[in-house]
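Figure S7 source data.
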Amino acid sequence: MSESRSAHIIAITNQKGGVGKTTTAINLGTALAALGRRVLVIDLDPQGNASTGLGIPLSGRDFTSYDLLFSDEPGPLRTCATVVPGLSVIPATPDLSSADVDMVSDTRRLHKMQRALAPDRTEADGQDFILIDCPPSLNLLTLNALVAANSVLVPLQCEFFALEGLSQLMRTVQSVRAGSNPGLKIQGIVLTMYDRRNNLSGQVAADVRDNLGTLVYDTVIPRNVRLSEAPSHAIPALIYDRSSSGSVAYQRLAGEMLARMAGTRQVAEAV
Ligand SMILES: Nc1ncnc2c1ncn2[C@@H]1O[C@H](COP(=O)(O)OP(=O)(O)OP(=O)(O)O)[C@@H](O)[C@H]1O
Ligand SMILES: [Mg+2]
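Tokens for the predicted magnesium ion complex:
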């Protein structure tokens, strides 16, 4: 099979907690699926928020991201269907919190996800995109995602300390490039929880764009209550309220991402 058929793997990462990683994984995934792409979300956070938000109850999480990392089962990926056609998930359970310790003595510990997502497996599954929802830490789980990924998507919350921690994340990306994954790209930086009534949001957005230029998506995700309500109904916001400002923004983000990938808009590889 040609290389172009293998899935594009995107690690959604920011070691800061609560910046919108999971909300982005769920709703960008849904928006890409709505545009006809086959998408797999891998929940790599023991909190399991992406699994819950995509409607997979704890009792239904048979094959988890822990199993993905630790089982040597060959063959196609075992994924769980969601209510969204074209969108599947490999869910997480709290067991995943022991993964760091369980892999620490493994000499190939940084390559477990890369091995699990080898092209022959993802091609067999026919995915276009694999979105990995990372935990809020630069731990072994996140490093596994970065080693396996083609690119990194960084949600940045529009708040005063938005850029804090970003340089550490970029240094980590550089060291993964220097070591295991030289082709790792920055997919883009997406500003989240933008509040247009709050001057600070505007100032932070301008500051981030000054610093990071075209790496930052034009699309901004607004603060929108529908995005925070949807997970309690176990459905993506795009299904819960498709015309809400948050849902519209994620649809726009999916379009912008695909357009940039198609080369109609070049992203400067600045970092
Ligand atoms: N644009 C938004 N508008 C309003 N609420 C939002 C928005 N994005 C995320 N939220 C809410 O903010 C909280 C944190 O978001 P989310 O869980 O996506 O962040 P996270 O980076 O994945 O967090 P963690 O680091 O804990 O994994 C959640 O309650 C979510 O519903
Ligand atoms: Mg999360």
